[in-house]
TrEMBL record:
Domain Csd3-like second N-terminal: start-end pairs: 136-257
Record organism: Marinobacterium zhoushanense
First and last residue of the signal peptide: none
Ranges where the Opacity-associated protein A LysM-like domain occurs: 51-130
Pfam families per the UniProt record, alphabetical: Csd3_N2, LysM_OapA, Peptidase_M23
Protein name stated in the entry: Subfamily M23B unassigned peptidase
Amino acid sequence: MSATGESVRIALPLPLDEIDDAAELIPEALVPAQAHKGGSGRIDESRMWGYEIQPDDTLTGIFTKLGLPIQDLYQVLEADENVLALDNIKPGVELLVDIENDQLQTLELRFSPAHKVAYQRKQDAGFEFKETILPGTWKEIALVGEIGRSFSLDAAAEGLDARDVHLITRLLKEKINFRRDIRKGDSFEVLLSRQYIEDEPTGETKIEAVRMLANRSPVSIFYYDGSYYDEKGRSLSKAFLRYPFGGSYRVSSGFNPKRHHPVTGLFRPHNGTDFSMRTGTPILASGDGVVSRVVDHKYAGLYVEIKHSERYTTRYLHLSKSMVRKGQRVSRGQKIALSGASGRVTGPHLHYEFHIAGRPVDAVKAAIPITKQLEGKSRKEFDALLRQYMARLDAPREQEGADEMLISRRQDQSMDNPSTL
């Protein structure tokens, strides 16, 4: 995607007198990397060419357009097996490539100015994966609105995007019937943060707090440590299951950032826990959420990913059958799939991953939400944060609707420092 919006062409290794004849064969969507804002700092971008993913694109099709060997694609997919970043590409994502001697040297995906992943050819064989997440600057703003037509339309008019509106309605669905309880003249207040990299918005937002008057009754929700709670510290989502199945199954391979792969012999991170079980064993959703992916991967096999909140995600790999579809809402304990031996495996098992703030953690040992109400130290921290939220929500009223933007001093631990994995 060109920062200037201009249409430019990919460079081909042709003599100068052949360039005009070849121009018709050059895909218009490929642009020099220099035209992109925000370089990675790790590679020589003078050698890179960029491409904007189109709605009907596939990785195979892109590699064919570039004339790259399909074997390069397989090697990149192998490097991606433990992170599955390539399955998350969508129209508008920027893809950069470095090609030398008809071989792919580097492939980089830019999901946003704050999130990039790269696959770089190793000297011995294959590719290695690197991820860069930049903290950026989070700017906080309080929005105040009044219901005139509907919450979704009036919230959008005040500056909330469709994702923000969807999240708020999902969080409040147990407290408010948006068709019956919302009346003309009811008010809403939203405190949200938006992420910026060098004053450029990344598109990432975070709902901090919501206060709404519905049918003359106040309803509020607040963000704390990756989840949402009401003013009394009661969680809006149910606790997670420690294991996504019934019964007891042996751990055949534990969480290990430096595992020796039993099939390839390479040292690659094992970002999940493998449970040995017969094909066809029911797999359950660990918690409430929305199915974000159902993918049949060359190496990971058939797998399901569930997004539980802005902070928590789970993955279930090597399945024989999926019982859910992308976009479907699921509940804790709901049967979502059957275990199997799809992909590159030595036998039937479930590979289960638990991610916190985009990072894989040991699902067997990690501290995951297991209570519905905050207590002790967590409750004290929440109450202190609640007072800050309320003061910020009240500020626009005191300023008679002033649209003052505030810099948030509170950031997720995962966003405190830039990191390259």
